[in-house]
Amino acid sequence: MARLQAPVRWGDDEAQFIIMLTLNKHAAGDQHMRIFSRLARRIMHEEFRNALVNAASADAIASLLQHELEL
Prior knowledge:
Its EC number is 2.7.3.9. GO terms for molecular function: phosphoenolpyruvate-protein phosphotransferase activity. Residues 1-68 form the PTS EIIA type-2 domain. The chain is α+β, with helices and mostly antiparallel strands and 71 residues long. It has a domain at 24-71. 48% of the residues lie in helices and 21% in strands. The chain has helices at 31-43, 46-54, 58-69, and strands at residues 2-10, 13-18. The chain starts with a strand and ends with a helix.
């Protein structure tokens, strides 16, 4: 996940985060869908979005995601 210094235009809205998921070739078949599903549910909550925005570092974002997504 990358947090942009300034939001960019994304359709009719603005995006402040870029999310990319990488898996090794031996990952379980639907693992990526489970991770994105968990992330989508979390993003719906303002408290989670605020935690992402206010995270002090890349390590803090990674820790938050690992904890919230149970990775």
